[in-house]
Amino acid sequence: MPWHAGDVPATLRTADVVVIGLGMVLIAAIGVLCSRRSRTAGGYFLADRSLPGWAVGFSLMATIVSSMTFLALPAAAYQSNWRHLPANAMYVLALPVAWLLFIPFYRAGGLKSAYEYLERRFGLWARLYAGGAFILFHLARMGLILFVASESLQLMIGRREDWILDVVIIVFGVVVAGYTVLGGLRAVIWTDVLQGVALIGGGLICLPILVDGIPDGLSGLLATARQHDKLSFGVSAGDVAGHTMGATMLTKLIVFMQILGTDQTTVQRYMAASSRREANRALWIGGLLTFPVWVYFLFVGTALFVFYKFQLDPVVASLEPEQIFSHFIITRVPAGVAGFVIVGLIAAAMSTLDSSINAIAATATNDFYRRLWRNDADEHHYGRVGRGVSLATGAVMIGSGLLIHALRTAEGVEDVQTKLLSIFGGGLLGLFLLGLLTRRATGRSTAVATGVSVVLVTAWVGLSSSVAADWFPGLHERVLDTFWVGVVANPLLFGLGWLLGRTPGPGDRSLAGLTIWTADDESTSMPPGDRDG
Questions:
Q1: How many CB atoms lie within 10 A of CB 378?
Q2: How far, in Å, CA of 450 to CA of 339, rounded?
């Protein structure tokens, strides 16, 4: 029978609050317990390279499947169809590249960060450029994720006052920053395991409830979805921006290769595993869990569409697509059980935010402070510096979330973070591949190629902006969509760096251990690591 919005209050119930509170206490306790083993830099940033592959893999999945996935994928399927799935499937194709190319180099080198390799290959400038790009991008992204997750929680609380959202942002941010500051990467990994279980479990709870509210159950769901073209991939047509499926798949492949091969949040986990074998296991466990989770949440979105075709709710028409799943959770999932699902939503955001906080601290400490200012202190000193940077990063994250709320510019901030990634990280994958795959590229040729790429992409993004539309309308109309930045910038940097380079001679710096062609040379410029296969 039809359900009416007044049947169940759209607000958290006491049982939900209790379950959420218990979840937060458990997460905080893990942070406190892990703090005892995170005194040194090695313990704080790499968990003393001692973690099992299954836990690291679960953490990889939880980090990549953010609250954006928990809310955005159901919203996309509810609003349109499954056209995002083929592009997301490119994640599976990126896994072998990380397995065969990136993990062996990171593990053999005994590195502390992804960007340390770039200094050994091209010079200090490459390390600072890549590390700075990583920090800028993640700082911009963290505030947005915190705001979006907090806004969803506010909707579930049932209070629309501005100050309520500010309180949620602050409390949420303090909890995430708190356990990350205390326990370092070890706390991040083990809380991610718990959060990953909550994320998957929370999603699994919802589908049976959705199916139960649809006439003829699963068969009725599929029939109605097909009738409204909700299960198609949209392969034959471009999206609203004119992007074809093939173009979207290509750009996603580049993005996923960059995440798996050059992003410190991921590389840090490869290095924290107890051996290379465990790092490989982590990659495959994380990768093979991530794609099914994406598929499942797309199906939840399709089920939501069909559910509300039969279970009429006038409130749904007034909600944004990203709010509908939250509305369903709080109004249709039983008390207490809904609290567990909400813990899954919170966990999806936490696992991304805690990873960014710790990875930013590792990059700032190892690639900037330790490299440029003080390299003669003991490991406990760098551990304390890392905690301080983590604390500052958490404060910036909370401040950014509050600023987004105050300015009501979440969409604008998302544009800003995309532009930051385009300008500073648009050719980052090309930079790493140039170092790993060629002997011809030199520090000078790569610096020129990187400079050209940054200038080109900056001009590209600038001419695509609304300001350029007013000042340079002719150029604005002719400039290519910034959607193509990664597709153009990475091959450009790689090709130009190779063309301007030269084959190394007898007097040049040794490339032993720095490229796939010199990986097995006995004389190695990479310090001994765990060549454990």
A1: 9
A2: 48
Q: At 98, which amino acid appears?
A: A
Structure tokens at 153: 């929680």
> Of 180, 153, 178, which is closest to residue 165 (Cα–Cα)?
153
Residue-wise pLDDT for 492-528, tens only, equals: 999 999 999 887 766 667 778 788 888 765 444 444 4
In angstroms, rounded to a whole number, what is the distance separating the alpha carbons of residues 134 and 128?
Answer: 10
pLDDT tens digit string along 184-242?
899 899 988 888 888 888 888 899 999 999 998 999 999 999 998 888 887 544 444 55
What percent helix, strand, coil does the chain show, rounded to 5? 75, 0, 25
Joined together, the tokens standing for residue 28 give 């905080």
Q: What are phi and psi of 464, to 5 degrees?
A: -85, -10
Domains belonging to the chain, first-starting first, are 5-419 (1.20.1730.10), 426-533 (no CATH)
215 close to 68: Cβ distance less than 8 angstroms = no
**C-alpha 54 chain-centroid distance:** 19
Measured CA to CA in angstroms, residue 149 lies from 11, 124, 165, 248, 342 at distances of: 16, 38, 10, 26, 10
Does residue 6 come out as left (phi exceeding 0), alpha (psi in the -120 to 50 range) or beta? Answer: alpha
| Residue 13 identity (one-letter amino acid) | R
Give the Cα separation of 266 and 359 in Å (integer).
Answer: 9
Give the pair of three-digit tokens for residue 387. 């905690």
Which structure tokens are listed for 373?
Answer: 């200012």
Tell me how far apart the alpha carbons of residues 349 and 345 are, in angstroms, rounded to a whole number.
7
From residue 207, alpha-carbon distances to 129, 221, 262 in Å are 45, 11, 36
Q: Which of 401, 393, 394, 400 is nearest to 365 (CA)?
A: 393
Low pLDDT (below 50) residues in the chain = 1-9, 236-240, 410, 412-415, 522-533
Residue 390 and residue 181 in contact, taking contact as beta carbons nearer than 8 Å: yes
Distances (CA, A) of 422 to 63, 146, 208, 292, 435: 21, 22, 41, 29, 20
What residues contact residue 233 under an 8 Å CB cut-off, 6+ apart?
Answer: 81, 82, 83, 85, 86, 245
DSSP tag of 5: G
The single-letter DSSP state of residue 334 is: P
